[in-house]
Fold this protein.
Amino acid sequence: MPISENAKAVLERRYLAKDEAGNPTETVDGLFRRVANAIAEGDRHFDPKADVVATARAFYDMMTNLDFLPNSPTLMNAGRPLGQLSACFVLPVADSMEDIFDAIKNAALIHKSGGGTGFSFSRLRPKGSTVNSTGGVASGPISFMKVFNSATEAVKQGGTRRGANMGILRVDHPDIMEFITCKNDTAEITNFNISVGITETFMEAVSANGMYDLVDPATGRVTGQLNAREVFDAIVQSAWQTGEPGIIFLDRLNRDNAVPGQGEIESTNPCGEQPLLPYESCNLGSINLVNHITRTVAGWVLDRAKLERTIRTAVHFLDNVIEVNQYPLPEIDRMTRSTRKIGLGVMGFADMLLYMGVPYNSEEGVALAAEIMDTINTIGHQESQRLAEERGAFPLFDQSIYRDGPPIRNATVTTIAPTGTLSIIAGVSSGVEPVFAYAYIRNVMDNTHLIETNQILKDKLVEAGIYSEELMRKIVEQGSLAHVEGIPEEIKRVFVCAHDVSPIWHVRMQAAFQQYTDNAVSKTVNFPNSATKAEVAEVYRLAYTLGCKGTTIYRDGSRNEQVLNIGKVNDGKETAPAGRVCEECRVPQEEYGHILPRPRPAVTTGFTEKVRIGCGNLYITVNYDENGICEVFTNTGRAGGCPSQSEATARLVSVGIRSGMDPKEIIQQLKGIRCPSCLRQPGVPVTSCPDAIAKALEKVLKVSSQPHEPVPAPISAAAKAAAIPRPGMTPAEAKLAKFCPECGARLEHEGGCVTCRDCGYSKCG
């Protein structure tokens, strides 16, 4: 099996079946046999005498050759008791307290099963509306989003996938301005991606700089008007500032609604690429394009015969997934089987271009994207029609847009999904994104830094006779090949990374794939930190003009910069009032005479220590970042103790330190406090819980306050953005780094999500 050690590690960490102690009970090969056998059983539902052994062999070969991989829940759960194989679901949120909390309950069940959820909050009455049944006033959709967010936080999905949500609000909802800015504080609503549902009417008003109506969804009445361009500019501002909200074009989603009689499509899955009706699920898989090119005398070319075989087998596989799936809700079971939507997509597109010598940002690259997706969509529909001859059309076929043509098995066939973890397993670039970085530093142990290099680039440089560690370090420092001396221009032309590709080419590539995709295309337009709001606006307008169904942008480093201006819009020019900013970390420390704690950092380093106390065990965690200790929290063992007092002490210590207090002063206050329970027990190393906390702080203080070594050489902003935390980083550099919360490696914004290419972590699950 052509699988890398990194891919094997990801499979062992996240996918292999484990016993109660967390030890794997199957091999990687066993995983693929389990999945192939379970999905092949779907054939028996239509033919009791079906040769499921042969089908299983075809599925197994396709996966172990890494020609195609299904979405993560299928790999995790097929052939196991849970049996939930779908990636994402859309749930309705109707305008009543009972319906809202039913949706929260259903979402919790889905998250527990390993799926993500999409919601439209557009049917909820606006904030301040009268509630006739109680005489009170409605709190509005954003307040309920926070309730959904808290529920998601409580469900950990068994440690395999995280709860991920998409929240959508129509642009004509009266609360739209609050929604647009609801994630400007990046500590809020952290389990949601959000997108504004854009209408054609709104975009026409933007072009004309005109007004448009706001409509109360509860009454259908116009409640006011807003200037469309001002709203559009607010969307651009927030996206420039934090990467959210994204936008989706609702009228386009419904233009391609295969069964319009079942209602409007109002929402998508958490990454934006799968528009679904309420209670539908997405069952996705991706073809590895790198495995479908072959080398000839003239160079690398597409192996069309192999690609057709893979497409047909993959459609068969995905239709079987719908059949053997164990859905978390009966409504989902019924609706998914009624439309039988599948989403066949691709990964490794950027790597394929590199082999073929085609720049991502070129007319040739865009044309190749359209050609490949046209082939996949055409053959995919042909195979779905063939399956319909054997198994029957999807049950709602007579009510569908296909009813006047030949029967088809699946209401939709193609989708371009993000493939963060799947592309790690396959060892290729993610989805249809450009390569994020060709070389970066990996911190493998203290003071040991290895340069990781894209293998295709390495082979090319070796072939050209110019590969060296020194050259790779220059690429790391520059962040790309574009301005590195000594590299031939032809190599620079082809080996472009995400930040070398102008936003226009990002959108053009997305539009090329969208032209031949039933559902939508997951794509992130990556901007450098220096990008302007005008450039973001241009991308949104271009996505609309070129026929995309939505788009997501991310400006490098934007989320880290937001804390510089608390309570203000950060346009790169405003600064906090003089005398109110910490010189070390640039966080405002005072507002209206009050000291404010700096925000808790998204990623910390720390230690957890078990300390014996008089009534059991106390577990103390002390975390720190580049500015020193930033938080303390405690847990007590089963034997009891006084957890509320310990938690209160830890919270006050955390707030005090982040407000600028010297940890040594706090240690002095806590150290030596005496508790009878500790003093009565022999062998207890502390005099009380506060004393234990003080001693833990003292230990961590010695580690976290070690002086930084000077940085050996200047490092560019692009390199800082892709860097991994390492000795020698200044606090400013560390703040700009993008860290994986699980392994510390760099994070990549791609496919509408955030992914770690090292360990497989994904914000979207």
Q: What stands out?
A: Residues 525 and 732 are 25 Å apart (CA to CA). Residues 363-391 form the longest helix (29 residues). Residues 88-268 form a domain with the Anaerobic Ribonucleotide-triphosphate Reductase Large Chain fold (CATH 3.20.70.20).
